Amino acid sequence: MGIDLELHSSRPARNNWRKSRVTVLRSSYGHGDALADALGSLQLLGVAGRLTAVDPYGDTLMNEQEAKAALREIYGLRQSCGDERQLAALDDLAKMLEECAATPGSYVWFAGD
What we know:
The chain is an alpha+beta fold. The chain has four helices and four strands; from the N terminus they run E-H-E-H-E-H-H-E. The protein has a four-stranded antiparallel β-sheet with strand order 2-1-4-3. The N and C termini lie close together (5 Å). The model has no long low-confidence stretch (mean pLDDT 91).
């Protein structure tokens, strides 16, 4: 199980992969398993927040307002992670959320397995 990330300039076409490529600004496919583990730990602990809503088995979209809210959750999540792979995944996620929060109309696409 893994979660891939993509930053899109506008809402991506989720039912047509080829059309969704038009809006991709940046992607991250290297931390999928570690990111799924880190975000999954939130759900196991019953932590409330935007990152808890990410579906590790499906797709989740966040707009720039949601990305800004999720970015505030990263610090607490980092404090509970001791695994270097998960910390690297969270750093990558934080960068993407920052870019999304600073780009009006953009979306972060969490693509779960």
